[in-house]
Write a structure and sequence with these properties.
This is Recombinational DNA repair protein O. Helices cover about 40% and strands about 20% of the residues. The chain is α+β, with helices and mostly antiparallel strands.
Length: about 220
Amino acid sequence: MVRTPGIIYKISSYQEYSKLVFIYTPEGKKTLIAKGCQMIINPYRIWIEYLNLIEFENKQNSLFLVLNKAFLLNNYKNIKKDYINIKKASLILELIDKTIDSHDNHLPHDVIFQEVLKALQFIQTGYLSFALRLLNFLGYKINFNSLLLKSKIIIDVQSDFNLKENNNLSDVQIKKLSLLRSSYDIQEIKEKLPILNFIYYYYEFYLDIKLQNLY
């Protein structure tokens, strides 16, 4: 057995007193059974919460485990005390939930996991940076230079969908998008709506995903 960190991105009730804990780790997605954690006397009860970073005893190459010898690494209290920041963090976890396949061993989960932690660290704009950077790993990298030159995004998937035209992106906003993808430590961006629209329609068009926590 090894000890592994993981971020809780979803929780559901399981049987009478237990929960299923869906967690993203450097190995990928795992599902933990937290037995009896809905009981007041259970020591894990306050740890098993959405948007908590925990460490647990992990059996490698297994997707379904019983939670054992876990402890809390970070409850992101600074994020949870602010509704707007919770929404931003929720987008990061929604992207994990909806875009990453539990059985896809080709994704660099260890790298993506570190991206998640960086995005949470710089939450003000990190949630947007993560949404853009994740596309690189999923095979939908945006060529911003082509977008500036030709007013059209060119990626591996052929499409006539002109995101610049449909979202009224200015060249300045395209450069901001490129900057967001290149770094997490970016100051708050004004006039974000065109950028939010860009990300929303990009994910909807290419991945058939409607992001509920983007706005």
